[in-house]
Write a structure and sequence with these properties.
With 343 residues, this protein is an alpha/beta fold. The protein has helices at 7-13, 29-40, 74-79, 212-220, 224-229, 246-252, 289-295, 298-316, 319-335, and strands spanning 17-19, 53-55, 91-94, 115-118, 132-133, 162-169, 192-197, 231-237, 256-260, 279-280. The strands form three sheets. Strands 7-6-8-9-10 form a five-stranded parallel beta sheet, sandwiched between helices. It comes from Ciona savignyi (Pacific transparent sea squirt).
Length: 343
């Protein structure tokens, strides 16, 4: 922080955030929501000279070359921003980058000294005390006043119909992790329901294996929302990226997330103790999952579930809350450096 961030600027002006004027480029609904939340926050300033933190108005959320939201030549455009200064005191938001197999944090341009607030962050590339582990949320995530957690009463015992469930894609060719291909080993069609489909991408049939037909048929018989709300634990395995939409979906539904994604820096891990609301599992020990989950007592399950609702309501139910938490993380860092040499 001392070498890549001008802390003294924040001392002079207070923690104020400046958003650059509209770039004129296309932008996604999620990014527009983020900018709107920033501009409506108490930290916003319209005067860049009084700003501590700067946010480019170019949409950096989706850096997948095949996406319709991808902006070309983004590096050149951002580097020409008036206050860029090699990225110092800037923050870049990103939801989609870092795909299988290496999960490299390649946004297609040089971040320089900018803070990266990124979903699906790999611990190998996360700069501790500087970057921010951002949550992955969908296109329909509410901008403000999102729905609360779905747990309306603390029923006891807290166990639901299914012990553990998962419904999602698996990868028969090299675009995603092999972890999901192994999940069928713990499926028992009784209290552990693991459903995968090969049907994704335009050419999935060309890569089908001998399990695809039966997997696809079984997959279509089950409703995802029903599984989500009737399972004690929900599996959250890595796929094309380390993070998954299922993490926040499970959290809201009070279905305790069982994370199967080695090296994933969980959302807002800087301020949240996730051991109180989820279980992180070593992928190589998949076969041990059912036995361990069966041994967890009702009181602990209830604790996990209550924590999940608290965290959802406090940090994740709307884009406004996500942005407020994002800004509070660098504020803490600034406050932890009381003595700064003037530049």
């Amino acid at each position: 922080m001392e070498t890549c961030f001008d802390l003294e600027r924040c001392r002079r002006t207070g923690f104020k955030v400046y958003v650059y004027p509209d770039s004129g480029e296309k932008s996604s609904e999620n990014f527009r929501s983020i900018l709107a939340s920033l501009r409506s926050s108490n930290y916003y300033t319209s005067d860049p000279e009084n700003a501590c933190l700067f946010v480019p108005s170019y949409d950096t959320l989706d850096r997948d070359h095949l996406s319709s939201d991808y902006i070309h030549n983004l590096g050149a455009k951002i580097s020409r921003l008036k206050y860029w200064n090699n990225g110092r005191n800037h923050i870049i938001f990103n939801l989609y980058s870092g795909t299988w197999p290496d999960y490299l944090e390649d946004l297609g341009f040089n971040l320089d000294e900018a803070i990266l607030a990124k979903a699906s962050f790999s611990d190998n590339y996360y700069r501790h005390g500087f970057d921010i582990s951002f949550p992955l949320f969908g296109k329909t995530h509410p901008s403000t006043h999102g729905s609360g957690g779905f747990l309306k009463a603390n029923y006891y015992p807290p166990r639901r119909k299914y012990l553990l469930s998962f419904k999602g894609k698996r990868y028969t060719y090299g675009i995603g992790s092999s972890t999901r291909n192994a999940l069928y080993h713990i499926h028992n069609a009784d209290d552990i329901i693991i459903l995968t489909t090969c049907k994704h991408g335009k050419h999935w049939q060309s890569f089908s294996d001998q399990k695809c037909q039966t997997d696809n048929e079984e997959y279509d018989k089950w409703d995802y929302q029903s599984l989500l709300h009737n399972s004690t634990y929900c599996m959250v395995p890595r796929g094309r990226r380390l993070g998954s939409f299922r993490f926040l979906e499970s959290l809201q539904a009070a279905c305790v997330p069982v994370v199967l994604a080695n090296g994933w820096k969980l959302p807002f891990a800087e301020v949240i103790d996730w051991s109180k609301a989820s279980l992180a599992w070593e992928e190589r020990l998949l076969l041990q999952v059912p036995g361990i989950l069966r041994d967890i007592g009702d009181d602990q399950i209830m604790f996990y579930r209550q924590q999940s609702q608290f965290l959802w309501d406090k940090y994740f139910s709307s884009v406004d809350l996500i942005i407020r938490t994002t800004l509070e993380i660098p504020i803490r860092v600034v406050d932890d450096h009381p003595k700064v040499m003037s530049r």
